[in-house]
Design brief:
- With 386 residues, the chain is of the alpha/beta class.
- The protein contains twelve helices and 20 strands.
- It folds into two domains: 194 residues, TIM Barrel (Alpha-Beta Barrel); 137 residues, Beta Barrel (Lyase, Ornithine Decarboxylase, Chain A, domain 1).
- The strands form five sheets. Strands 3, 4, 5, 6, 7, 8, 9 and 10 form an eight-stranded parallel sheet that branches. Strands 1, 12, 15, 18, 19 and 20 form a six-stranded mixed sheet that branches. A two-stranded parallel sheet has the order 2-11.
- Helix 2 packs across helix 4 and helix 8 packs parallel to helix 9.
- The longest helix has 16 residues.
- The radius of gyration is 24 Å and the shape is elongated.
- The protein binds pyridoxal-5'-phosphate (PLP).
């Protein structure tokens, strides 16, 4: 029989977690204020879709609200319902609009649907007939071909004297497709189109820019800007240094092993050691969003020639070798001085020493995907804003 009194006292789960995530809410708040300054005279919203880019809608939403954000964008209505408790006085826009059956969720939580197609517009008009005035936003497509009324339909709607008076959009918006590439001529063309839309809906606020567009200059700001990725410390504009890092992902080293020259590593034996090596086995895998495309070798679909991802430990960058597996990843720590890496230590997967966008590039993807792929196993710690 085990004597329960013999158990050691419970450790803080974060200190013993196989894989863990630290979210610096102070940096998040600072990044929002930074984007608000860059937005000049425009108001600055906060985009918190996909669980605040994987970092936690409740904590991030509350922090952004306390930092001063009063306009929020979510992708789907359920996110709006969750956010409402943390952002009581804010306007919450639902980017995917409203579907029949969701009316109550919208009305009870004071959520604003972003109407983005003719079909949704027709449904919305019928809702207004039944329930009376209720605010909405209108998305107009200026070249993305994703969501939004076609330009001509939007301009016709603006001019339509027969439209019901209860149809009262509080915001018209559009979205740039290449804002992250400052040289793209298309942003200018989208800007010109959106100016027409904005003028047609005179007296109604307008919004064009996400994180990247804010850097394109004041003419892109209109009344409201919509930063997302920049708030979370990701790269908004290609090649431009991001704002403060917010998320740090780490995994525990569960074993250090000495491996012989000529032996092979991980599934498929795609990496053969060219020297006697010291390997650190970390308890993180693709099930935790440490994407398999970060593997050191043996990933036939990866193009671009990079050699896989790196972690950061004991002051050193160490490469992933062989294939990443579901729960475990192997790092080559041979070049780290003896004793600087031990089992039980944590290796940084991304964070202040290993920029998330650099890791993403090694995986053939973008920081957005690294963040929103964080799995359910990460033990989370939130560093409170001041
Ligand atoms: C996701 C999204 C944003 C935020 O984009 P970032 O690049 O993360 O700043 C803004 N507007 C719309 C319509 C979006 O879908």
């Amino acid at each position: 029989m085990i004597d329960q009194n013999e158990f050691p006292s419970d450790a803080d789960p974060f200190d013993i977690a196989p894989v863990r995530l630290t979210v610096d809410l102070g940096a998040l708040a600072e990044n929002w204020r930074d984007m608000a300054r860059r937005s000049g005279s425009a108001r600055t919203a906060a985009v918190v879709k996909a669980d605040a880019y994987g970092l936690g809608l409740e904590d991030c939403g509350e922090t952004l609200y306390e930092a001063g954000a009063r306009d929020f964008f979510v992708a789907v209505v359920q996110e709006g319902v969750t956010l409402r408790a943390y952002a009581p006085e804010a306007r919450i826009f639902v980017l995917s609009g409203i579907w029949p059956g969701q009316e109550r969720m919208f009305f009870e939580n004071d959520l604003v649907p972003v109407i983005a197609s003719e079909e949704q517009l027709a449904f919305w008009m019928s809702v207004l007939v039944e329930f009376g005035d209720y605010p909405c936003a209108l998305q107009v497509d200026t070249g993305f071909n994703r969501l939004g009324l076609p330009m001509q339909d939007a301009l016709a709607l603006a001019e339509d004297v027969s439209r019901p008076a209860s149809f009262s959009p509080v915001l018209v918006l559009s979205h740039l497709h290449s804002g992250d590439t400052p040289s793209a001529a298309s942003s200018k063309a989208q800007l010109e189109s959106f100016r027409q839309v904005s003028a047609a809906f005179e007296g109604i606020e307008s919004s064009l820019s996400a994180s990247a567009g804010i850097f394109l200059g004041p003419e892109y700001h209109f009344d409201l800007t919509r930063p997302g990725i920049a708030l979370y410390g990701g790269e908004a504009v290609n090649g431009m240094k991001p704002l403060r890092p917010v998320a740090t992902a780490e995994a525990r080293i569960v074993q250090i092993r000495e491996a012989a020259v000529g032996s092979t590593v991980s599934y498929g034996a795609t990496h053969q050691l060219e020297r006697a090596s010291r390997l650190a086995i970390a308890s993180v895998g693709y099930a935790d969003g440490y994407l398999r495309s970060l593997s050191g070798s043996g990933i036939p679909l990866r193009t671009g020639g990079t050699g896989g991802g790196f972690g950061f430990i004991g002051g050193y960058r160490v490469p992933v070798i062989g294939r990443i597996t579901m729960d475990l990843t192997i790092f080559d720590v041979t070049d780290v001085p003896d004793g600087a890496v031990r089992s039980g230590d944590y290796i940084e997967l991304f964070g202040p020493n290993m920029p998330v966008d650099e890791v993403a590039r090694a995986a053939g993807t973008i920081g957005y995907e690294m963040l929103t792929s964080l799995g359910l196993r990460h033990e989370r710690r939130y560093l409170e804003a001041e």
